[in-house]
Amino acid sequence: MKNSFSRREAGLTLVELLAAIVSIALVLGAATGLAMTAIARQKVEFDAARLETQHAELANAIFNAIKTSDSFQIFDSSHSAETSSLSSYRTGVPSGDYLSCRHKFTGGGGPGGLVEEDFEFVPGSADGLGTLIQTIHFPSTGQQQIRREFSAVLAAGPLFSMKDGIPQAHWSISTTLDRADFNVYAMPLSMR
Amino acid sequence: MREIWCRKRSNSSESIRRLDMRPFPFALTVLRLAPFLWAHGRYLQIERDYMPSTNSGGFSLTEVMVSVVVLSLATLGITSVWKLADDKALAARLDERATRILAEYSELQSFAPEYLLGQASSSSRMDFETRGLPLSPGETRTGFMYHPRHVDPTGGKGGTLTFDDAIPYQLTLVMDGQVQLITLTYQLPYQPDPKVTVIKQIRLNLRQ
């Protein structure tokens, strides 16, 4: 008799159990919603910061490429640039979407080599956002080229120019939060 | 105490009774003393373990209200932490942008062609009007550090690539002895008044 009495007192009624289940479901649902919102917000912030950091690296790469180049040239497009020879660039334009920088080096008393660093803006089709492509060629050694792409680029005009006699690049990026502007001015050491 | 459960044992049987104690507020004390007052009282045992709690029916209204308030405060705390995180992330990005702007002008001030020096007027102008020109001594230029995506207040969907201008900055050049001092100032938007003004400076050697 004692056991049956204990069981009756220790248990939960169906209504209590259902109420508990509903309460737990509500709490878990609210907590999950809160966590999902937090994750989504964090992702938006993270994506914006990462894209801006990537383009800041690209801006540094363009700055260093121009600054340390032995020769550079701006072209309308990659098609114009491809017609240049290894010894010298063909005639370029004051402003365009293709920048090529060449670095000559000598090592070990050998014939020396050439590294060409190119930057090309490829306009987008639908969303108005283009891509900046960085390519590093090693024509003297035949080494495989290095290629990096940087997306979400907004360009009001030609990206690269020689306005006022200063090699420069201007572009913006559209992040998940805002627009970030990038302006690069670089006088090559060889031109000082 | 509304009721108690009493167990009465004898050699041949055992029984449990529930006694309603509400009309007898001191009955429990009498029952406790029963084994000492009455010979058969030792067979009477109060089963405290079986005594149902008067509080077992659920939470009181006060408890529920307090828990609701606590949970609400916790939720508010969590969302305020989100805002704090957003503000700090924005401050970090603005700091990087300020550094980039100063780096641009560092290059212009040091290596721009001579014929460009002094072309910018000494009056305050927007940055885009004088883009690419070095600063003149005493000149102030202004611009915007932050361009958030445009939100249409009417709820309409405008162009997705429309941005507003926010967080203005000022850039000044002062000749300080034998150095050029470039100062960039802007205010953090989320701080309560008085707003925190961020000042970043670089010192450059005079051009030779």
Structure in words:
The complex is a heterodimer of chains A (192) and B (208). Chain A is an alpha+beta fold. Helix content of chain A is 35%, strand content 33%. Chain A has one domain (43-191). Chain A has helices spanning 2-10, 14-67, 78-82, and strands at 71-75, 95-96, 98-105, 113-122, 130-138, 143-154, 160-161, 168-174, 178-185. In chain A, strands 1, 2, 3, 4, 5, 6, 7, 8 and 9 form a 9-stranded antiparallel beta sheet that branches. The radius of gyration of chain A is 30 Å and the shape is elongated. The termini of chain A are far apart. Helices cover 30% and strands 27% of the residues of chain B. Chain B has helices at residues 27-37, 61-111, and strands at residues 3-9, 14-20, 44-46, 125-126, 140-148, 166-176, 179-187, 197-205. Chain B has 208 residues and is of the alpha+beta class. Chain B has 2 domains: 3-50, no CATH class; 67-205, no CATH class. Chain B is rod-shaped, with a radius of gyration of 40 Å. Chain A binds chain B through residues 1-2, 5-6, 9, 34, 38, 41-42, 45, 48-49, 52, 56, 59, 63, 127-129, 154, 163-166, 168, 170, 174, 177-187, 192, and chain B through 16, 50, 52, 75, 78, 82, 85-86, 89, 92-93, 96-97, 100, 104, 107-108, 111-113, 115-116, 131-133, 146-149, 160-161, 163. β9 of chain A pairs antiparallel with β5 (140-148) of chain B, so a sheet runs across the interface.
